[in-house]
Amino acid sequence: MSDDPLACLTLDLENDWYFDDPEYDHLTFEYIDDYIEEMQRLDVPVTFFVVGKTIERYPEVIDKLDTELDSEFHLHSYQHDTSKSYDFRTEIRKGKEAFASHFGSEPTGYRAPQGNIAPAEFAILEDEGFDFDSSIFPSFRPGVYSNLDKPLAPYCPEGTDELVEVPIAATPGTRILVCQSYLKLLGRPYLTYLKYAPLPDPLVFNTHLQDFYETDSHDRLSQPKQSIMKRNLDGSLELFADAVERLRSRGYEFGTMTDVIEAHSPSCVELVYDSTEVGSRESPDPVSQQHDHLSTTNDD
Ligand SMILES: [Zn+2]
């Protein structure tokens, strides 16, 4: 690999908003050909974190993504249960089974539903044979995660010997997430922000099909989530294409999660976490910071 900073596009492949009723079953899959065409046009490899049940229900869609895109696959739980009331190891084993029976090999990477992973679960992942996890949003989301004390670069979580955590991208200092849902929510001023903001390396950019395509599932979301998620949805793919262009203009090369692990895998012994980066923050509320920042930028 070159010394250029590395970006990795990831997509969490799951039922839109986790609605499991038959009439809301993976409605975004209707747009899969369009999605493939867009990614081919942008010439970016995609790393998919796929739900076990999705593999079982739609093996032909998985095959299509596998063969038509520069892609790789990892696990995104078995059933995308966000309640955390299940037994984690059982859920992981069922997911591994669904994955292995389709791909012929076990997954090496994992991402938790909503990035909600408990500290003790890292050791279970390592024990179950995973090389890496990419669940941590090193930011703050009320009621889901509070990760302002977590590193922005790959690290070994406490309780593991070799498992690498590859956090999802957030900007150093301000901890604003760099992902499609933020890009969509904040629109073009955010692209301007990406032009000047300090950015992490590697940069793991997360997306979902429901960030790009509107289906009847959006109408079932409660307010205000529905308004937030529908914002800029029409122009979402265009915003994404511009963000890819912006990252390329800042020197980023696009690779898969395997490329990220090879380029950045830390030695757990050598890991040094710079706590001064977190300590420099003035407000625990990233949303208010985000508005402070964006109010100083213009559309471009
Ligand atoms: Zn998910």
Helicity range = 25-40%
Give the CATH class.
Alpha Beta
Please give the domain count: 1
CATH superfamily: Glycoside hydrolase/deacetylase
The radius of gyration over CA amounts to 18 Å
Determine the oligomeric state from the structure. Answer: single chain
Q: What is the arithmetic mean of pLDDT?
A: 88
What structural class results from the helix and strand content? Answer: alpha/beta
Question: Can you describe this structure?
Answer:
This protein is an alpha/beta fold and 300 residues long. The chain has one domain: Glycoside hydrolase/deacetylase (TIM Barrel), CATH 3.20.20. It is built from 13 helices and ten strands. The protein has helices spanning 32-42, 52-57, 59-68, 88-103, 121-127, 180-186, 188-196, 209-212, 225-230, 236-249, 257-264, 276-279, 286-294, and strands at 6-13, 46-50, 71-75, 109-110, 132-133, 140-141, 145-146, 164-165, 203-208, 253-254. Strands 1, 2, 3, 9 and 10 form a five-stranded parallel β-sheet that branches. Strands 4-5-8 form a three-stranded parallel β-sheet, with helices on one face. The chain has a two-stranded antiparallel sheet with strand order 6-7. A hairpin with a 3-residue loop joins strand 6 and strand 7 (145-146). Helix 6 crosses helix 7 and helix 7 packs parallel to helix 10 (236-249). The longest helix is centred in the first third of the chain and has 16 residues, at 88-103. Residues 269-300 have low confidence and may be disordered. The chain binds zinc ion (ZN). Residues 12, 14, 76, 80, 113 line the site of zinc ion. Zinc ion binds at residues 12, 14, 76, 80, 113.
